[in-house]
Amino acid sequence: MSFISRGFTGRRRKEEAPAGRLPPGQYDVGDGFPVLSAGPTPHTSLDRWDFSLRGEVDEGRRWSWEEFRALPREPVSVDIHCVTSWSKFDTRWEGVSVDTLLTEVETAAAYVLAFSDGGYTTNLPLADVSDGQAWVVDTYDGEPLDPEHGGPARLLVPHLYFWKSAKWIRGLTLTTADEPGFWENFGYHNYGDPWREQRYAGD
Amino acid sequence: MAGTAVRRRLSWQRAEVLELRHETPRASRLTLRPPDWTGHRAGQHVDVRLTAPDGYTAQRSYSLASPPEREAVDLVVERLDDGEVSPYLTEELRPGDLLELRGPIGGYFVWPAAPDGPVQLIAGGSGVVPFLAMLGHHRASRSSVPVRLLYSARTVDDIIGRAELGEPGSDATDAEVTVTLTRGAPDGWTGPTGRVDSALLAERTFAPDRRPQVLVCGPTTFVETVARGLIDLGHDPGRVKTERFGASGGP
User: What is the pTM of this model?
Assistant: First the structure.
């Protein structure tokens, strides 16, 4: 890059961030935890909440809140990266690995479409929500996940930009063809790798 | 929540800074001339990128304040004291400088292409910026869609967009504009004061039975409170769009 913004030096230097953990174009938001969403925060009561797997599966699966809470759980400590350019290090969550949810599911699908209360969707390759890379989390920093941050439960896929970590998740539709989700239909990148700065379509 | 696919590669371009004006004591209006600008939709934003001599970059998103009918592109940037980008844009930048940006971005939080009812805009603080573009577009396109803006500002001095909104009671816009002041009003202020609550929403916004399309923009707590209030009044959550400003990349 030959262009220089006259008089700009920058304040938060990359050296301040843990080495090798701040993707290009991102800054460390520190203690902040910004909220972004496209509509009103849904408030689903737990007795009406369920999580389902549907689409290209041998048979659909459904867990009530109690059944979901009884599944094997994992603590997760990860860095997260929002497309609006903030990153947050060492965020602590707890929840169920998507691997656990997919146990014994027979499928020919190569993609999933996460769907949420409020109508939000986002698409991911099945390979990116498998092998210990994705969780459905219901706990943040030891507390039940706040509705503003996606509670009762949200998807957590920390190696992709955070819009892929769907808030208020209610399930996954497995598909053989890739179908763009909500933001993907509005010009955001189909895959969203922060390390390759895939913010918008064509990046 | 269906979208229309936007598949155009966004390239960085260097826009000349034509003008900088104080919009309020804390906010500046930047008028820019991007060399490659094919227009935008009211409500869209751009990403701005700053590059230091050592190659370090910082980027943030800013809503477009100008309507698509105008050739130049305006941003309104509020200075955040602990910010990295906004102090540069509001204090260091000069006319004639080049500013790297790309856009327009976003096709969701925009003026509806074919409104199927009245349009209700609700803003907190600098969240009014995308609505300035929408009101300008509404006026320039001689739209007959009924539109109202409810805008919460701290003080009279903090009102962004006086040029578009006019002084209270003027006819600068054909929208019904209500400004409420949360931190004190001057003598002779005839508008409401205090935060946007359910009483003010009920009094100054389109009722749910008019089936308005509602757009809410502002800081997270403001958006959260207003959206909740709208749902409690009976608005369809599917007709309420939100965009949150503040710590999400504003500094």
Answer: 0.92
Nearest to B1 among A7, A9, A119 (CB): A119
- How far, in Å, CA of A124 to CA of A158, rounded? 12
Q: How far apart are CA A83 and CA A182, in angstroms?
A: 14
Which string of b and e fits A131-163 if b means at least 16 CB within 10 Å?
Answer: eebbbbbbbbeeeebebbebbbbbbbbbbbbbb
First to last CA, chain A: 16
Per-residue pLDDT for chain A (203 aa), expressed as one digit of tens each? Answer: 589 999 998 876 555 677 789 999 998 888 888 888 889 999 999 999 999 999 999 999 999 999 999 999 999 999 999 999 999 999 999 999 999 999 999 999 999 999 999 999 999 999 999 999 999 999 999 999 999 999 999 999 999 999 999 999 999 999 999 999 999 999 999 999 999 999 999 99
Question: In what order do the strands lie in the sheet containing A121-125?
Answer: A61-64, A50-55, A169-175, A111-116, A121-125
Question: Of B3, B241, B249, which has the smallest distance from its Cβ to A84's Cβ?
Answer: B249
Query: Which of chain B's residues have a Cβ under 8 Å away from the Cβ of A80?
Result: none
